[in-house]
Every structure is written in C-alpha cells, then in structure tokens.
Amino acid sequence: MNISGRNPKQKLLISFSFSLRAVVLLATAMTAGCMTVGPDYEKPKLDVQDTWLDVSNPALKRGDVELGHWWTVFQDPILNRLVDEARRQNLTLQAAGVRILESRAQLGIATGFEYPQVQQANGDLGFQQISAHAPNTAPQIDRAYGSAGVGFDAGWELDVWGKFRRGVEASQANLEASIATYDDVLVTLTAEVARAYVLIRTLEAKIQVALDNLQIQTETLKIADALYGGGLITELDYLQAKTLLSNTEATIPPLQAGLRQAKNSLSVLLGKTPGTVDSYLGNSGAIPTIPKEVAVGVPADLLRRRPDIRQAENQLMSQSALIGVAKADLYPHFSLLGSINFRASDAALTFATGGASSLGDIFKSNSFQYSIGPSVSWDIFNYGRISNRVRVEDARFQALAVSYRNTVLNAAREAENAIIGFLKAQDEKLKLKQSVDASKRSTDLSFYQYSEGLVDYQRVLDSQRSLVTAQERFTNVSGEVANNLIALYKALGGGWETRAESDFVPDKIKREMARRSDWGKLLKPGAVELSDEDKKPFWRFPDW
C-alpha cells in the first residue's frame, strides 16, 4: 500500500495498524502450533475386590443401592428432621462450601493467564532539573522542564508449551477436589448427627433401665427391712439389699451427665447453642430400629461414591498438571510486548520542532509514540533449579498416587469392618435379648421363693444383679447395632448425593459476601460447578 500521499497522522495510524496485524498473525501462528509438555493424567491401576466377604449373609442385599437418604431406613421422623436441620445450619459444612467459591475464583485467576498477562493504562507527570555540570549538556538546553505522558502497555507470554493450560487443568482439578471435600464433610456430618441421636436414645434407655431396677430393688429393700425388723433375716441380708439399691442409684448421675454432653454435641452439629436441641428431641424416645435387610452394593461402587476417594484422585490430577507447569520453564518463553502512549514536555527546545513545546501538546498527533514486537527469553543457566522443581512436583505426584491407593484400601477396610461389626452385633443382640428374658423370669421366681421362705436372700441378690447386667448389655448392644449400620452407610459413602437439593453456600452468607465484594455470577445457584463446555482445554472464557 502506498502511503506517500498521506498526512503524518494517517501515516502513523497506518504504520501502527500494520504492526498490530503482524503481531496478531504471529501470535495466532505460534498459538496454533502450541504443545503441552508434562504428563497427561492416567488413572492409577487399583486392585478392588469383586464382592464383600460376607456377601452370602441374608441380611445383606446385593444389586443396585441408593444411599442418598440412607438415614430414613430407621423410620424415625425426629432423626430425619435433625439431619435436615444440620445440613442447613452446620458451620463446618458452610465453611467447606465457601472454600468451593475460593477454588472457583482461583480457577478464574488461572484462566486469565491464558490471555495477555499485562494490560495496564498508565500516566505520569513530573518536573525535573538537569545539573549544569551533567555530561552532554549545552547552554541552549532547557535544564528545568516538566513532562507528561499517558498510554497503554500490554504484554502477552504465549502459551507455547502449555504452561498456562496446565495451570487451568490443575485449578479445575482443585475445584473438583474442593467439591469432593464438601461432599465428604456432608457424609461425615450426616453420620455424626445419626450417631449423636443414637447415643442420646441409648443413654435415655439406660437411665430408664436403671429407674426400673430401682423400683424393683426398692420394693425388695422394703420387704427386707420388714423381715429384718421382725427378726426373720439377719442384718447382712438387709445391708446387701441396701447396697444393691445404692449402687444402682449411683449409676444414674454419670448417665445423666453423658446425656447432657451428647445433647450439647448434637446442638453444635446443628449450628445451635447448647440446650436448644431439646425442642427437637422431646422427652424421650426409643433407640432407632434397623431394617431386616441392608443394601450394600459391590466394592467397586466405593470408587465413584466415596467423596474422599474422589478428593484424593482430583488432588492427584491437579499435581499431575503441576508437573507440566514446572517443565514448561525448561523451554524458551515467547512474548508479545506493546506500548502506545502520548508524551509531551514544556522544554524550551525540542529536537522534533526545533522550538518550544508545552504540556498541552500531549494529545497532538506528533506526540503519539508506540512500540510493538515479539521477545524471547530462556533460562539457560539456572543451576538445576528448574529441573529440581520438576523433580519436586513429580515426587509429590508419586506420594499422592500412593496416598490415593491407600485411601481406596482404607475405604474397603472400613466397609468390611462395618459389615462384620453390624452382622455380629445383631447376633449378640439376639442372644442378649434371650438373656434379659431369662433374667427377668429368674428375678421374679427368686423373689417369689424368697417371700415363701424357700430360698435365702442371696439368691434374690444374684438374680437382680444378673438382670441389671443383662439389661445394660442389651441396651448397649442395641445402640451398637444402630451405630454399626450408621458406620456402614458412612463407609459406603452415602448421603452426599442430596447436596443437589440446595446450594453450597446459604443465601445469608452469600448476601454478606456480596456486600463486601463483587462476586459476579459466582453466587448464583450452580454457578461454581463446571459443565463440559466449561472444561474446554483451550480458550476458556475468563471471569472478568
């Protein structure tokens, strides 16, 4: 194109336009040929058993299993209400939800590095005086003058080796890991609420057992007192009856203290102050009963269901990408740099005009200046720093790979332990129920025979002690059966699926955050989770 007939301002704009086009074409060409250094993530091979060890037990139901609302199998409306309230109000869960927003913002930062990293508007105004004895000064130079400038600088390190794309990959995996962490907190929270509730009901049952035995032992003591007053028994029989009664009375205060502490723990899980949970619980209730069959699925389900396994794998994926980030520094860095600005001074003499100028000339066409072009840098002599950083990231990846396998093994162990604990606790409960029934019958018979003078008082004491022991053990194991079932559902990773029913962060917290900072669209429901479109490996739209 011939620009000889153009005015200076047009020539300047045409020249800048050609330069800009050349830079854009260069950037496009270099970006099109980009490669991604570092390893692509490969899922570690795992040894997972095909079936559970006790799969033949009739109490275990095989096949597809839905554990999203596992606590409803107890058919206890109070427990259902407590779980729902904890999921709305628990502070630990809310903190985990906010950390998801943090990870989402970190992903936005990583995405922004794929675009020009430096985009700065600038301006300056200064006044200075040059020394008369400075080098290369002349009498005609205006030694005291002011200068002003306004412009725009841009710098873009091209992602030739995939450094920034690997950074986005790592941030995406971190976001998925933070969501898995939230799910894990949700699974743990649900189990802890159920355990606290079972403990409360178990302690209430133990207190009631103690009160029932007190009533029996009080009646026995009255009879012993009357017989002792009539000279029909010795003082030893009377004292033994009083001792048994006092010992039973002594078991109640620690049970009451434990009950209060369990309620306080449940209050915290619900995000409430101690004492407020009583309105949910009512006066008392029975220990939750268990279903005849329990659905457990297959061991392979753990890999997709347990949040801690998904969290460990996402951390592994993120670390794999960081190896590529480190390796990219071994190669040259290609950048495009550009600067446009207007500059003027009020010096008495300028080389461009041969005369005086003023700061008011700053926006004239001949005050315009620019620079644009590519640059390359390469850390050639880094004394092994970059290579060792790659080794550090690789070692961290390997450690996480081992931890991932260990997480899977521990998940299988927890599930197997919960299954065998649940099954054997049921067997123990059945036997103890028979023991309680026999002890009650023995107590009634011994008391009747004692009243008739057929046996001594020691037989009555022995039968009543046996009844107390049998009832305490039966109450304990009834709670253990329920707790083992809770542990089983937790080990299977049940309960997190229901998070789709609400957002990660409550609306109250969102309003507080929105008052402090501009969160854009991220506070909208479902905004933090990535769709398949969001997971594009290249040219994701950044979060402005």
UniProtKB/TrEMBL annotation:
Alphabetized UniProt keyword annotations: Lipoprotein, Membrane, Palmitate, Signal, Transmembrane, Transmembrane beta strand
Signal peptide range: 1-22
Classification via Gene3D superfamilies: Outer membrane efflux proteins (OEP) (2.20.200.10)
Protein's membrane topology: Lipid-anchor
Location(s) in or outside the cell: Cell outer membrane
Keyword NAD part of the UniProt annotation: no
Top-level lineage group: Bacteria
Assigned protein family: Belongs to the outer membrane factor (OMF) (TC 1.B.17) family.
NCBIfam families: outer_NodT
Entry protein name: Efflux transporter outer membrane subunit
